[in-house]
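re: the backbone from monday

yeah here it is again, tokenized this time
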């Protein structure tokens, strides 16, 4: 088909065990112990089960040793939504501040790398596609406008951002164009297909960091629809005097 377009942890956890390779320096200091895997033990964070995974992303089990329960450090870093790295020279795992802040205006750290923020921004692309799916049916732009008010920097006399009204007007025109080009039945079917989007189905089509700006484009191809019916989300950032990058534009088409 074608669419026309115009920590709370419930048990004691010590994050000192990693299921993965370590450096030669650390390996030389390893101490042999006898421990036990316990598949019956679960970890919850704020009532939600934590998926225990090894360094390769495969399902794993916690280990118990002398009354203490150990969980892979990469699993806990993931639960905190923070990047993790290993310094082989210092035999140190580093869990650092997330390069993406989503509390209010979406902000990228001054030294972010494109690869470090893509996955985090994919969740935003999913949220935007789902609200877009609702609003091509309803014709309203309330959800998008609320998202813009929360996450995009407002234009003032002291900055050069495009502002919230600019984004709202662009989006409203897109919704109007799609609704004019497609009948109600097609819009409903397309909306249902878009709502099946997940982070794993999002493709990072393009990303760029250059000078005082950065941009990330994501695509989703709904099952049963032609490639030209894919939906694209573009997130544009601009750099402030502080060096941080703030979300300036959102395009959905």
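seq for it, each position gets an aa:
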């Amino acid at each position: 088909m074608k669419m026309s377009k115009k920590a709370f942890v419930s048990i004691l956890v010590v994050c000192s065990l990693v299921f993965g390779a370590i450096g030669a320096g650390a390996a030389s200091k390893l101490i042999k112990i006898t421990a036990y895997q316990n598949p019956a033990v679960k970890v919850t964070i704020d009532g939600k089960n934590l998926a225990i995974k090894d360094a390769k992303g495969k399902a794993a089990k916690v280990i118990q040793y002398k009354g203490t329960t150990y969980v892979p450090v990469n699993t806990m870093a993931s639960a905190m939504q923070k990047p993790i790295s290993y310094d082989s020279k210092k035999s140190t795992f580093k869990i650092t501040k997330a390069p993406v802040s989503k509390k209010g205006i979406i902000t990228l750290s001054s030294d972010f790398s494109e690869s470090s923020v893509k996955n985090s921004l994919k969740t935003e692309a999913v949220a935007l596609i789902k609200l877009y799916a609702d609003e091509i049916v309803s014709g309203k732009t309330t959800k998008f406008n609320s998202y813009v008010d929360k996450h995009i920097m407002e234009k003032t006399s002291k900055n050069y951002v495009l502002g919230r009204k600019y984004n709202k007007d662009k989006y409203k025109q897109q919704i109007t164009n799609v609704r004019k080009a497609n009948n109600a039945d097609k819009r409903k079917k397309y909306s249902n297909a878009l709502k099946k989007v997940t982070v794993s189905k999002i493709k990072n089509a393009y990303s760029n960091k250059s000078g005082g700006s950065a941009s990330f484009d994501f695509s989703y191809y709904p099952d049963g629809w032609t490639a030209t019916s894919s939906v694209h989300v573009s997130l544009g950032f601009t750099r402030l005097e502080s060096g941080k990058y703030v979300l300036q534009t959102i395009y959905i088409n």
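DSSP finds six helices and 14 strands in the chain. Helices lie at 24-27, 73-79, 114-138, 142-151, 164-181, 184-194.
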